[in-house]
Amino acid sequence: MRWRAYGEHAALLDCASLAESMAAxxxxxxxxxxxxxxxxxxxxxxxxxxxxxxxxxxxxxxLLADADLDHPPEGESREITLDVTYDGEDLELVARDxxxxxxxxxxLHTGAVYTVAFTGFAPGFGYLTGLPEPLRQPRLPAPRxxxxxxxxxxAGEFTGVYPRVSPGGWRLIGRTRxxxxxxxxxxxxxxxxxxxxxxxxxx
Amino acid sequence: xxxxxxxxxxxLALIQDLGRPGYAHLGVPPSGALDVPALKLAxxxxxxxEDAAGVECLLGGPRLRATTSCTVAVTGPPVAVEVDGRxxxxxxxxxxxxxxxxxxxxxxxxxxxxxAVSGGIVVDAELGSRSRDVLSEIGPAPLKKGDVLPLGxxxxxxxxxxxxxxxxxxxxxxxxxxxxxxxWFEDPAxxxxxxxxxxxxxxxxxLRLDGPALTRGPEYAERELPSEGLLxxxxxxxxxxxxxxxxxxxxxxxxxxxxxxxxxASLPALAQARPGTxxxxxxxxxxxxx
Lengths: 203, 290
Prior knowledge:
The complex is a heterodimer. Chain A is α+β, with helices and mostly antiparallel strands. Helices cover 21% and strands 32% of the residues of chain A. Chain A folds into two domains: 2-66, Gyrase A, domain 2 (2-Layer Sandwich); 79-201, Cyclophilin-like (Cyclophilin, Beta Barrel). In chain A, the strands form three sheets. Chain A has a seven-stranded mixed β-sheet with strand order 5-13-6-7-10-9-12. The mean pLDDT of chain A is 93. By secondary structure, chain B is mainly β. Chain B is 7% helix and 29% strand. In chain B, a hairpin with a 2-residue loop joins strand 6 and strand 7. The A-B interface holds A 4-10, 12, 14, 37-47, 49, 118-125, 127, 181, 183-184, 188-189, 192-193 and B 21-28, 124, 126-127, 136, 138-139, 177-181, 226-231, 233-234, 251-254, 258, 261-264, 290.
């Protein structure tokens, strides 16, 4: 772990692994020190932005200096189940590269429990970690210009769901009807960092 | 109903307040007025709280009819303002009778003017803000002809301060601090201190710059950066070496190294930087590579 200055009111914690950044995020969000404006986990980092003059950065630094990141707090993690129709355009490509049948792809994808590592790319787009090894596959060589909302994709160590129409290069294996982001809802993003997610085959 | 009716919009007119900070972890940008001091001033001139929603208009152009008597003020770069065809000043409160039309001309310098109206514009808020976010498409849609903008109740009378507008300079000096990935670049301070040109691809997401490309150090030449958190003012440098300075509608995470971070005091000037503006980054620190 190493802190790097990020402008006047923020610092970025460089982490050795995704697990470490998730643990650091869990630690800080469960302690909830006063004066934090933004707390943004990344794939290998945690960005902390403080309210000017609050001293929150120093508090977070102290908190993490003594933290046991191998045993982070459980926090208020929720579990969300998403019903998916596995008929994505890249399902056969994914099966071929994994050396399994398309039914096996569905079995593998629905058999794992995922954790929202971080959000980005678009509002409500969560990067879910916990993807079984055979499904860890590269992005498409050329991204699609239009990925339909609700598309379930995989890329590298992550799986995720596109909340709305956007370009995107992830391999698409299915789709869900669940609304991932609604700015007028009490809880605008269905998936927040730390949440656990399961996928269920809706046939 | 107290309202403003949109007769013309100009190139792009957006409702903006001070934005929706605090949702970056959900992928939601802070958004809000790019020239924050200008919106706050306009609000003060009409007797509003500084965080009331007004209209951010790119290169002027809107014409709005008041359905009720109200007070308006236009700030940002100096600009012609007319009421029923009669010139009135920018940067001062102007009283409109019901039915009168206020028109904002095109500023000769700068980009974004701000119109505040007594009571503020009270369209529905999303995530605690009435700001339009052009990247995420959250918040009220860009204004279009025929829109009726509801106003809140007018509280106190405005017009306390009348302020001389500032003219956007031809060349900007932008104060920066070293960014978290400054060490990825060969002498980033010297590279950023060269003269850059603001390109026409710039928008509320970021200013795109053209100039002498920054080069990465040999050990970082082919390195991929895992996605990490971004801030307004982050100077991100993609592999082509040409910086993007992120503004209020920036993505909340990104995968290219951030070489420097703009000081908050320099952000309003960036909001007014037209394509073609020359710009240099200046840092007061000598410690860049860590």
